[in-house]
Write a structure and sequence with these properties.
The chain is an all-alpha fold. It has 6 helices and no strands.
């Protein structure tokens, strides 16, 4: 019975890895759409977001099956309940990547500054998502803690983007609407970082049973 349960837990890990990889793909796709004007990426991001939604449903069913059929002990229960919390954050990451792609299609990006820090934000958030999932699979508290610390970098980059765009808006410009759109995109990346931080915090709980301050993000 325990061997069967261990196999199902491994399957849960693999499903989480797959869902995390889809989140990375969605973020990377909207970044390519933003910086390379690759219009095909918009539809690709929307399709990946649908796959993320389906993966959330699949993992929910697997977790419910584990809880109902296997009667897990306290440690196992923490792992399963944490996984349920994590997939909720991953689903939101997919939504926000799709939201970014939707905004990009309306942007006239000519003569707009601030791209460097938005690009850096995107790279940081992709790394945070990757590392947060890896920390769960490897039960690596140190890596999860590093993810939480990385969120400060994303917040700092967001503030830089915000300051740059606001300063530009103070000058006469024909790009005001596009600048506001870029600020919204930066905010979505900042939120993605928050969700990755949440995932890392649930990883720590799943291992230690101790809650730290887990943010509530949209």
């Amino acid at each position: 019975m325990r061997n069967k349960f261990e196999e199902q837990l491994m399957h849960l890990n693999n499903e989480l890895i797959t869902m995390g990889a889809l989140c990375e793909e969605a973020i990377s796709g909207c970044v390519k759409y933003l910086f390379n004007s690759d219009s095909e990426m918009k539809e690709a991001v929307i399709e990946v977001e649908k796959q993320i939604d389906q993966k959330e449903r699949d993992i929910e069913q697997l977790c419910m099956k584990l809880l109902i059929q296997q009667q897990p002990v306290a440690t196992d229960f923490r792992i399963i309940s944490s996984a349920l919390k994590m997939i909720s954050d991953m689903e939101r990451i997919g939504d926000q990547a799709s939201d970014i792609a939707e905004i990009v299609k309306h942007i006239d990006r000519r003569n707009i500054d601030g791209d460097t820090h938005i690009s850096a934000m995107a790279k940081e958030t992709i790394k945070m998502v990757t590392d947060s999932i890896e920390s769960f699979v490897k039960k690596d508290i140190e890596l999860a803690t590093d993810v939480i610390k990385q969120d400060d970098n994303v917040d700092e980059l967001f503030n830089k983007v915000k300051d740059e765009l606001i300063e530009t808006l103070r000058q006469p410009t024909e790009c005001a609407e596009a600048l506001i759109d870029l600020l919204m995109i930066a905010k979505y990346f900042e939120r993605i970082g928050d969700h990755a931080e949440n995932i890392a915090e649930w990883v720590i709980f799943s291992i230690t049973g101790q809650h730290i301050d887990i943010g509530q993000n949209d």
